[in-house]
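ARCHIVE RECORD
Type: protein–small molecule complex
Small molecule: iron/sulfur cluster
Source of inputs: curated submission
Record status: active
Notes field left blank by submitter.
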Amino acid sequence: MSFESIVFTLILLVSFAAFGYSAKKLISFLRLGKSEERFDHLAKRVRDVLTMVLGQSRLFREPLAGLMHFAIFWGFLVITIGTLEMMIQGIYPPFSLHFLGRIYSVLLFTQDLFAAFVALAVLYAFYRRYVSRPKRLQVHKEAQWDATLILLLIFTLMVSLFTLNGAEMARGSDLHAGAKPVSRAIAALFSALSPNALAVWSRASWWVHMLTVLGFLNYLPFSKHLHIMAAAPNVFFQTSRPKGALKAMNLEDESVTTFGVSKITDFSWKQLLDTYSCTECGRCTAACPANITGKLLSPRAIITQMRDALLEQGPTLLKQQKGGTLTSEEQELVNKTVPASWITEQELWACTTCRACVTECPVGIEHIDHIVDMRRYLTLMEGKISPEAQTALRNIENNSNPWGIGADTRADWAKGLDVPILSQVECGEVDVLYWVGCSGSFDQRNKKISVALTQIMKKAGVRFGILGTEEKCSGDSPRRLGNEYLAQTLMKENVATLNKYKFKKVVTACPHCFNTIKNEYPQFGGNYEVVHHSQFIAQLVKEGRLSVTAGKEISATTYHDSCYLGRHNDVYEAPRDVVKSVANGAFVETRRSRDKGFCCGAGGGRMWMEEKEGKRVNIERTEELLETGAKTIATACPFCMTMINDGVRAKAKEEEVRVLDISELLANSLL
Ligand code: SF4
Ligand code: SF4
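STRUCTURE (tokenized, with ligand):
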């Protein structure tokens, strides 16, 4: 073994040992989290890894940035094979993968080409970070320095690879020069050098390459680029729950003394793994309606602040777990709660649970779960919830609706409309159970939607019925406001009521009720076919059960996507189909639509809270809707209706622009 090989072997061993130590420490921090089953639905998990990790699907939501990352990701994978070969050669120089024959030539060709792609992608990344500077990449100094260092390391790796190949080719000692077109072009630059100089270039390049690889490996655990290792498992372990469903808390467990999440040890290991996976790309924050309208909340910061808490508390918590005696400072540190010491209440309560962040995140981070878990702690353990939200919850407790209007008046909207009430239907059986929801039952404006939908169902000859005063708040808002007790009570009571009757499907005009009954009631034994009224009406039109006049009374129309219908449940086409069936082609999309749609500001219980910080979310959205020039704004959610109506009034446009639910649009056009 040569002296050079001995030195390299020693450096390699030290590097791997140091990396192993850091990795072990990070894994032991993950073990501080609660256990959580994440091995179900294996086929889906593998599919997610194939599309999101190997296919980089989420990154292509921004095509150029996606292409850049795709080149770096695949370049790294391919080049790593060559790096491993070089590493073995560092210990045992005669080693080569050339026994692979033609495959080896293809491998060398691909590596050469990908190295060029990676170098170009890094230059483009520098351009974005320092010249074009999109807002999401304008980060604090430390993160900027980290990103710059990583880019420099990657660039050094590619350049040293090319100078190594170039010098070897110029010396005539590269037997596979024909398989490396880019390196061959670089070799021309070395043609004037003496054999001795070429030998120095070759060895120096080799050492720079290897030391950079090992330095990179050991820097990763301390960098946001830890995602290189954490992202694939994080995607694999994404929740298999339906998108719109929050996890149910076990309220029966008497050993539990604290509810929700306050300490790092209250999070699950997957929630902690999320923090290692964050690339700090800012895609989530760039899409967050709260952040865009000037609130303190940044979903990226929620994740990085959780990571800060984990890394700061981790060593002391481990010491405590092992029975070590803590100093008073250490005790003070472990007593700190994440909501309060790292994340403010203000940030947590600004979230509308719109799912824009989760939809954008390329590495499968589940921001809403973290935020609601911390809200659960604030609401259930500390009572730190805004007075208006508290009032809404109290009203729901007393009268099953957030306004506190007498529960016995829930079905008053239907007076004189001859709407069957299930408890009075003779056989107790209908085709459609029409779930009206609190807004459709009590809110003056939204009662008109209930009337329109009733007209439509009657016209189409649908055999339907409502629960009347037996219906209660679905539990959506209490759950998202962190009051899991109240939410579960309502859900269980509603399931018991629903299970008394025979019906084929539940139809509702409220995406929040739709989401909760469809995706969360199964957690409490309520399994039903649940259909949003947009889907139901679109189907009636398609089946020819409704005759409508296209174009009647309608000029240009736009549609506002509800987050709970769209991003949480992937219903994008049905409401558009309904609008288009009467809009006679005069349909305009908004700048941000479908899964990039912009929230109205009412989700996550924000409907019941004041919005004092920054610009109002509904105003931002209304401005965008008005920008389209449409004279009719169609909605498919009673909360959106309230928020957009308020926005149109605030912009003094109520004389020119109408806000109508899709059911009203269609009812107006019925023949
Ligand atoms: S769910 Fe919506 S409002 Fe909440 S953090 Fe994510 S993007 Fe922001
Ligand atoms: S949470 Fe996801 S989208 Fe947001 S910065 Fe981290 S990796 Fe990017």
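CURATOR ANNOTATION: The chain has three domains: 3-30+62-236, 264-382, 392-668.
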